[in-house]
Amino acid sequence: MSSTQDPKPDGAAFDDFFDSIGKKAENLTTKDDKPAESTQEEGEDDQRVVDEIESLCMNCHENGITRLLLTRIPFFREIILMSFFCPHCNFKNSEIQSAGEIQQKGTHHELRLTTQADFGRQVVKSDTCTVKFIELDIEVPPGRGQLTNVEGLLSMILEDLELQQPARKEQVPEVWAKIEEIIKKGRGMLAGEAYPFRVSLDDPAGNSWIEPDQKDGVGKLARTTYARTPEQNEALGLSGDAQPDTTTDGDEDPSIHNPEGDDIIPNEVYSFPATCPGCSRHCVTHMKMVDIPHFKQVVIMSTVCDHCGYRSNEVKTGGEVPEKGTQITLQVDSAVDLARDILKSESCALECPELQLSVNPGTLGGRFTTVEGLLTQVRDDLRAQIFDIDGGGDAPEGGDGMESEARTNWNKFFAGIDAAIKGEKKFSVVLKDPLGSSYVQDLYKPEKDPRVEIVEYDRTAEEEEELGLTDMKVENYAEDHEAEGEKEEK
Fold first, then answer.
1. pTM of the complete model
2. Residue limits of the Zinc finger ZPR1-type domain (predicted)?
3. Residue at 485 is within a domain
């Protein structure tokens, strides 16, 4: 295969550059076993597993050696491992960098640690990622990229804090005392004395990750995506190519369609200008209001960027906040049930106990589809993440970095979802929505649907806080606003 034919490898060709670590080691062993004559014949044509580059040491300004390893991580994507060593001053440094492109959206991961095994979960922290140990009240700003686990991440933070403690004790005793308290609490976490607690990774570039587990239920590991702000795009170097708005002097973009009148007409498509969260260029967002029978009106929004290919489809629900949340349980027994319309709002958690499937609120965003379509989307998203399938990549078994037992369990898990999608397995779908904005099509109206059960429940204090309902003021807010304005003028 000639690299000149395809300067930017894609799909299966990308595997030639980014093998898993196991394949790299196997390749190295094979080459070491070759006879000396064969090695001499191949000469420089041999592909080295680890590339070595002579580079300047920033500690003593002599020349050291930088080693580069291109590899891929199961459940994630391709990365570059870098290690530097200076033989003159023995300075060492190691870090990772993402080998892929900046993702279309930023990602936020939050893991709730409840057992000692959670400390062993692999963590990829890119150089644009912010790490927080929430209960410890510690935040690590973006910096050096790391490939480690949760225990290693917390240990390195505590070691960095301990480094200057003797000097702080003499110079600023009050600061020393506060940091010593944090270190003591952190050591207790490492010893398993402070469960549960949470760690979060927030990466605007979308290239950081916490290893998932098949046994994770709702509330264990949450992964959400979000549109970057203009400031975050600028920090990532994505704002420089933004195109200025050329619609001036009354010239209107022909793709923008705004019907007359202030009222939104159901089933009418509205288009309005927007900024692409992926590349910060001009794009168009389409909006349509749909009236769901026996439920409420929802807004379907679609954004497509012609410059970078960014696509987004979301469903937004409106209306007043109900006094109670709702839990909808659907028993799926036939192809008719698989074809039911289903609306999963952003605030809704999805569970299928028979399939061992749990989806946290916000993970998929708002979706209006069928039961079959929702399961298919969940399966495809999980399979792409777990088995490293990204637009043609050839890694159906998750790479050799995945343990055989874990690989078998994941294959069994996806086989169960496939059987459910084909109608070969009966299962239930549970939608728990604290805002009551989710919906399952009722096929027996006005009679009671025997396969659908709807139960109202009181929201917990945590749910009220997460939804921003605790501090929400719906009465006399205009008077309070005027009072605040008068105070500012004085």
1. 0.63
2. 55-212, 274-442
3. no
